[in-house]
Design brief:
- With 317 residues, the protein is an alpha/beta fold.
- The protein has one domain (7-55, 107-316): Glucose Oxidase, domain 1 (3-Layer(bba) Sandwich), CATH 3.50.30.
- It is built from 9 helices and 13 strands.
- The protein has a 9-stranded mixed sheet with strand order 1-13-11-5-7-9-10-4-12, sandwiched between helices.
- Helix 8 (260-269) links the parallel strand 9 and strand 10 (272-275).
- Bound molecules: acetylphosphate (UVW).
Length: 317
């Protein structure tokens, strides 16, 4: 891995959407999600079924996180055992209440990445100076994404089922052509401006293996190629949501770089990335009724200057 080429070399000829939505843009390809796209999504609400796609924060079975990050910690501040303490606030009438707080990586659990979350070559999305990230993101934080919301037609691409596996394996890759083939096999082609939701079910291994899951960490996922990046650009894909921790194969098997698609899609094209979604119930239902498209609606929490924020996306069929 140490002798992997620099990202500036790998992506030397990669296309960008910088400037496409103006010099001040901070939501990138979400600009494709116009009112018409919201209505196109609404037309796929046919049965009144609602699926919430967030993983449980503080799941007793554990919170999968990117290596080096720690799971969210929830701490009880006030409960029935603390009200007799002289430090407890006092209110007339015998009012008691429970309070708690969490200490969490904003990139932990199901979340949206800000467009300024990842970069190379000293520039983030839209060409902003990477020094604008120092002390908090002055440009392209999660806040503009949270204000806009992400609403459109979603399509589930159940790559694990398409490959006839309970889950994809460590380092297993697939391409945009596989996504197209998966959609065709499911009976509904991918359309321009679709929000893509990719199921690998890889995190089942985390819940089976615990900490051993992190040994030789290399998630499965999309693998970088110039053709794939061009496909995302031509298809005007606004958003990619996956059930893995980081959306793409961790180490590109062709050049050894880590997460080049974060750079090519998020930093260069402005595609928003959302990770660690729980797609299991939705996938089961889609396999049952054959409807793989739905209204997708998500709004990460509004957090000033943040690099990402937790979200509980909805798929409505
Ligand atoms: C990294 O940026 C390393 O990962 P993620 O996109 O999962 O936050």
């Amino acid at each position: 891995m140490a002798d992997a080429p620099d990202m500036t070399e790998v992506l030397a000829d990669a296309p960008t959407n910088w400037g496409k939505w103006g010099d001040d843009d901070e939501v990138g390809a979400l600009n494709y999600l116009t009112a018409d796209e919201v209505l196109r999504g609404v037309r796929h609400v046919r049965q009144g079924k609602v699926f919430t796609l967030q993983r449980l924060i503080g799941d007793p079975k554990g919170d999968p996180v990117w290596p080096g990050r720690s799971p969210a910690e929830r701490t009880m501040i006030l409960d029935e055992s603390t009200w007799d303490s002289p430090d407890a606030p006092q209110f007339p009438g015998g009012l008691h209440y429970a309070d708690d707080k969490i200490n969490a990586f904003l990139q932990g659990s199901t979340q949206y990445d800000a467009l300024g979350h990842v970069w190379y070559g000293g520039q983030i999305w839209n060409g902003y100076d990477a020094r604008s990230t120092v002390g908090g993101l002055d440009r392209a934080s999660v806040e503009p994404i949270a204000r806009k919301g992400v609403v459109g037609r979603g399509i589930l691409l159940d790559v694990a089922r398409f490959r006839g596996k309970p889950y994809l394996e460590k380092g297993e890759t697939f391409t945009h052509e596989d996504l197209v083939a998966c959609a065709e096999a499911q009976g509904t082609p991918i359309e321009k401006r679709d929000v893509l939701l990719i199921r690998t079910n890889f995190l089942q291994l985390f819940f089976e293996q615990g900490q051993a899951f992190y040994e030789g960490f290399n998630e499965p996922g999309l693998v970088y190629s110039p053709e794939l990046v061009r496909w995302f650009q031509d298809m005007e894909i606004p958003n990619l949501t996956t059930d893995t921790i980081a959306n793409e194969v961790t180490y590109d098997p062709n050049n050894g770089t880590a997460l080049p698609l974060h750079c090519a899609l998020m930093r260069n094209l402005g595609v928003t990335l959302s990770e660690i979604a729980d797609l299991e119930e939705l996938a089961e239902d889609c396999a049952g009724d054959g409807q793989y498209t739905f209204l997708y609606a998500a709004a990460p929490l509004k957090i000033h200057q943040a690099t990402g924020a937790p979200v509980n996306p909805l798929a409505v069929k």
